[in-house]
Amino acid sequence: MLVNPLVSKYNVPGPRYTSYPTVPFWKNSSMTEKEWKIELVKSDTKTIALYIHLPFCESLCTFCGCHKRITKNHQVESPYIDALIKEWELYKEVIDVDFQLKELHLGGGTPTFFSTKELERLIHAIKPSVPNGNCEMSFEAHPSSTTPAHLQVLFDLGFRRVSFGIQDYDLKVQKAIHRIQDFDTVKNVHELAKKIGYTSINHDLIYGLPFQTIAGFLATLEQTMKLMPERIALYSYAHVPWIKGTGQRGYSELDLPQEQEKMQLYEMATAYLISKGYISIGMDHFALPNDSLSLAFNTNKLHRNFMGYTTKSSATMIGLGMSAISDSWGAFAQNEKEVETYLAKVNKGELPVFKGHILDENELFTRKQILDLMCHFRTELPKTQAYWMEIRKKLEPMIQDELVKIDGEIVVVSLKGRSFIRNICMAFDYKLHNFEMGNQLFSKTI
After folding, report:
1. d(CA 245, CA 445)
2. What is the pTM of this model?
3. Using the 8-state DSSP alphabet, how is residue 444 labeled?
4. Cβ(99)–Cβ(134) under 8 Å?
5. pLDDT tens, position by position, 140-190
6. N or C: more exposed end of the chain, with fewer CB within 10 A?
7. What is the distance between the alpha carbons of residues 354 and 436, in angstroms, rounded to a whole number?
8. C-alpha to C-alpha distance for 309 and 214, rounded to whole angstroms
9. Which residue in 101, 113, 110, 107 sits closest to 138, CA to CA?
10. Is the peptide bond before 109 cis (omega within 30 degrees of 0)?
């Protein structure tokens, strides 16, 4: 095996920067509904992105780091949809009356756990907020539980993007992560989605899973190319059993590809996808050149929020549902993490937030720098910033290793440095500069 010394050097625990500050550094461990409403009113709510968390799954996938509820009891559907509709009505009382909904995404959990009837009821309650159909609508789907009716009904409601959770086609890996689905199942649902008219299909793949090998993951990529999805998300498996409990303790750490092997999986997959015509976008996404994500990347219009990389940059993102996170740019608020507590608060007529964070001026500045790095692999940093010299000190080893270069006040990430983008962002994160990083807070960067 070829050993890359940079892997051992930079494979340290670090944030994924889905937000800045990252959740462990949020100040408001108990944000009130009143505090969040004040922040929301102060924000720009003329354009809104809406994320709806549908947390139920019939079985546990042991790699999963999402907040979810495992159940086969479909009686939970109706009261949960009722609560989502009530929560949306509560938000509409607070936000700008002339807002435009620019994005709507159903995440999970497994959105296709819900019947078409309940999903239709939910979207019909929200659709009046979508003027002239000018809203990008997407949903996540489990290939094994997504029926032709799901695809048709959601398409008829305005959805044009779907993301299928694949992870890996190797049967040994699938057994370890408790997600068994063969290629034919994925092929059937993918081809039906294309036939119905979906214009952008994403496949989620994960590297670093138990028992993965270069040969096995290459076979997964080759299978994926038979369908040529417009987008591919190539996620790094985050092994955090101390956070996620028994699910990720279903296999030994010794079953996982170690740091050098894991980096080889990533580099092999990246080179393979690029050779097939995909454009590498941000930290972990790939898209065909004519897909809107590639076009946004090439025109510096790419944005990133809790939903991932997006072509839209709405100032405010509202999260509905258990554990969902909302973002007003100047503040974050997270909903209650237990279904029962979430339902109880909404049914009392309360926004179900329980914690959050209000950003100060320095945090807003740093947030913009990290967002630029994550989306565009470059940022401009004025020398007047008090912590500039500390950042320069943190970047110096990365400059020597040719991961970044500094041209005047512009910091540019090299092609080689893109594999270490989380580490580069950490250099800008002044909250980490004097922080003792422990293994029990973040997953490793590689």
Report:
1. 20
2. 0.92
3. B
4. no
5. 999 999 999 999 999 999 999 999 999 999 999 999 999 999 999 999 999
6. N
7. 27
8. 27
9. 107
10. yes
